[in-house]
Amino acid sequence: MIFAWHTQLKSSLTDFNVECHFFLEVEFNLLSIHNQSLVIHLVNIDNTFTPSQLIDLQQSYLIKGIKLIHLWEDVWFNKNNQVLGRIASILGLNKRIHGRKTIVQKIDKSIAQTFLNENHLQGFVRSRHKFGLFEKDKLVAVGTFSALRKMNYEENYKSAELIRFAVKSGYSVIGGLSKLITHFSALYNPDDIMTYADRDWSAGEVYQKLNFIRTDLLNPQFFSLDINLNRIIIKENSLSSAAVFNTGSLKYILKF
Question: Domain of 109?
Answer without folding.
Answer: 95-255
